[in-house]
Fold these 4 entries.
Entry 1:
Amino acid sequence: MTGHRSFFLDEALDGYVQAHSPAVDDVQQSLIGATAALGPLARMQVAPDQAAFLAVLVAAVRPSFAVEVGTFTGFSSLAIARALPAVGRLLCCDVSTEWTDIARRHWAMAGVDDRIDLVVAPALETLRALPAEQHVDFAFLDADKTGYLAYYEELVPRLSPHALIAVDNVLWSGRVLDAGAEDADTVALRAFNDHVIADDRVTSVLLSVGDGVNLIRLA
């Protein structure tokens, strides 16, 4: 397991959550181990229960085209790709070849590499290069927090009527409420959450899943 969990859960309650969520399989366990070898960076990997949550959302939406901004070593993209319908495609955006090489190996192990298009480049450039007529049915944002608002603004005009956007780390271990926390990431996350709830193009709910997930759809 990753050791990463909702910051407000104690060990016992986290264990209960994991015990009542889908068990990790061999591919996921291999990916967890490969990510753990990166040291402290491994905490950027979503927890298994959060990956299962993403899979449930994707299975319900049945996207033809999904986007992930911030792939890291591929745990979330593996869950998303496995839940896609037969015709579905996932575009993964990341800037690290080192991390996404780990993802690629595990996508192949799981037999979902043919559903995923990985672009290693600044995500904003990748999103802006999408064809104007390309609709997005599902998006997961888990990248640089200062870029969230720009990614969101590129995605919202492209959303299909039934689309969902899931945005990770929006509680930031509670620092969004810490008046003394004025680092760039915390400030950006506060601004992002405020922007979304005030945006009349969408309706949203901020969930206490993992480190906080803002779940957004068109109004």
Note: The beta strands are 65-69, 89-94, 116-120, 136-141, 159-168, 202-207, 213-218.
Entry 2:
Amino acid sequence: MDEKNRQIRSRELLEPNFMISMYAGGAFPMAEEDGTINWYLPDTRAVIPVNEFSIPRSLKKFMETTDFEFGYDKETMQVVKECANREKTWISDELIKAYQNLNDLGFLHSVEVYQKNKLVGGLYGVTFRGTFFGESMFSKKSQASKTAMVKLFERLKINGFTVVDVQFMTDHLAMFGAREISFREYEELLIEAYSKFPKF
């Protein structure tokens, strides 16, 4: 595929309506090293049901004394750019533009972590009905991304969300209650979540 056709194909894969339909079906995008955008649909999925989220004891103690302050949707695109600002990243410039479109339409959301009025951590994801599709997080200060997770789930629980799709299992996510399930189980969770119409 020549460069011109590759760019056309990438744009089609990142049209807002197409992206939302793909997310709703359980797929998620990633940019390859050559810039190609691919959508992935793994056989197993890592999720955290909102009501099963757990906070490690040491993190609870940290949050009682930290000077971190938190925001929601204050600097969503800056959070996306900070998540992309690393040596190896799947978040290409094309994807950043695509996320801007989703942000404009109200499907992209973020949690910001501040210290002395500076953005030191955060996370972002895509929402569709009762599901939050977690995409990425960053941390410039110890514990910043973990505290963002806590604040995310506080918000989701209050507003009636059902499940967070975290895509792949990691030790970091396991401490919060993430578990791997089959794609069939995952689809059942999505069906339940799609009966809800919460606002972030």
Note: The first helix runs from residue 3 to 13.
Entry 3:
Amino acid sequence: MPEFWVSSGHHLTRRDEGGGLVVTDELLLAYLARPELVPPEEACDAERALHAALLADPRRPVAPAEIAAMADADARENWEMILAFRDRLLAARSVEAAYLDLARRGASGTPPLFLNQLVHLILRNALDGCDDPYTLRAAEMFFRPQRASLSDGTLLLADAELIDEAEGAGRQSPLVAMLGREPVSELDVLTADNTWTYWSRSDAFSMALNLGSDPKSRDGLARAIEAFIRHLLAVEVAVEPIAAIEDKDWRWFVGLDAEGTRIGNALWRGEAVDAATRERVLTLFRLTILDPSRADPRLGGKPVYLLLAMNADRLVTMKPQNLIAGLPVVVTGEA
């Protein structure tokens, strides 16, 4: 089976008996090696000393006085956040358990970057052995914001960071610039003919996804959602793309992002939603909990509808924690 998502850091950890990932010293050291945490040239001695001490022992307790001794207020705030995040990881029995705790009890104070890294790592574990590049490319949406655009009338999603870098650096080809086209037009779009190339470039996040007219893309996202829920909540669900919510008595929905939640709430309340807002909805899914005993009785045998949308700037930022906090699932065993 080809390797993928080495950048997730899955090689820095190992599975426990339940299939979850153990928080290892190597994983903690990878966080400490991030550019955001390496003391800059102007850092004070107290910050440098703490960083060096944690590199030697990433689990060591840190006294409040060690943070207070730092001269820079931003540095103190940054270290308080990373240490709180580290302590939540260490208090949990697995990476997955730490994420479940963050999703349910709130991730206030945890930088989105760290949440995305956890999801990246967890999905790498959940999708281990997956041989479908469509599922893997769609799963990138869980932890990497996407930029939506139209190319030749087709809705494409491309990695937002990649697009923003291209626009900021002015790297568009002269022809693309002359035609007024977007940087996404220079990316390879995942198709049945080039899926084999995904494996060698999975960590570059450089393939666009045709969410508009290629049904394999939406199916891939459905399979990724199923795997994420199965792995974290130990419940089997069936997810299928749909064109519209035709059920007049729909009981439950989950917004897969902030905009999808906002639009879903408006529809739930029976409010009028204008055409421009409706066009922000990129895809709809119907989710069925296969074991009725695992479904909240309030669901009444009905499916759950999932909404994914883009904001006014055409940015798609999935919030997979909504699937944990928002699904009407009776909790039993978990990862």
Note: The first strand starts at residue 146 and ends at 151.
Entry 4:
Amino acid sequence: MLKKISVKNITLVAVVFAMMSSPLFAQFDIGADVVSRYVWRGWDFGNSAAVQPALTYGTELAGGALEIGAWGSFALTSGAANENDLYVSYSTGPVTVVVTDYYFPGYTGADKFGNYGENGGHILEAGAGFSAGIFSLMGFYNFSGFDSENSAYVELGVTPPYEVEGIELGLFVGAGNGVYDFVAAGESPEFVLTNVGLSVSKDNYSASYIVNPDQETSFLVFGISL
């Protein structure tokens, strides 16, 4: 009898295979950000400052750039939300595709790392992005895990030219449905604006002013990259 192969096992095999490919241009990198709030796509996760470490492996593959990484967000306040993700992305020219395994330890009583079911702590998401000049467009879709609504999110970004050296600006507007539109029991979530704002960065410092029109709230987030 053939043993059923899970999404998790396929992902691990792909990661190991990719890390054995094109070693001449392979590179590991580490880093971390400290942020005053973890605001993601217009939502505040944890109401706390957080440390967000990252570990990445990049290599050239088939004329493009393959990246495998781990990213996390760990709140500095006890009891706030934590997150520990894995992802694989591939970029060629202006196009990027990515698959992300979002893992939220402590989210449910059945959130062991190996539980990818609807009662577990994982969400698997597929996404793609396209950039042209100062514009970028990204789309994402939750295809497995505890998001039974299979939520989608799209975001348009603009990086306007700025005359002062060392300053980078970014404008963005994003909308989603499902988990992005918290509604009362019995109501159907709609596609709503959740993430509109401006980001400014210089050297290792960044600040973002973010508005969630659907929830009629805003955030001002400061971050330092280590």
Note: The CA atoms of residues 19 and 126 lie 21 Å apart.
